[in-house]
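Exam prep: given the inputs below (a chain plus iron/sulfur cluster), describe the expected output before reading on.
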Amino acid sequence: MGLAYLFISHDLAVVRYVSHRIAVMYLGRIVEIGNAEDVWAGRLHPYTQALVNAIPDEAARRDDVQLLEGDVPSPVNPPSGCPFRTRCVFAKEACAESRPELRKVGTHEVACHFAEKISS
Ligand code: SF4
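Solution:
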């Protein structure tokens, strides 16, 4: 019918079932985007992983990812470099120096300097 829906939620378990494509946003920017099953199965960004780990269904969790801690920074005065670095357990010095752009890694796109290392 030529219809498109934009469904917005923090619950990735629901998003997965109603979406053909998923765009994960943090502080107003897309940090991971791709086909729903690709993003779900190959989640690369630490924020996407944290959202999955927040799902009460333990079967969906990966053992190697920690739950998200800390507060969301002000979008008016975001951290330098990667906006997620103040909450990211994988953050390194480089994360404060430059903002990661969306780039293709595997099946979809992610904005993280270390996506390949985090996913392996
Ligand atoms: S760029 Fe650095 S701070 Fe940002 S998500 Fe990747 S590892 Fe974490």
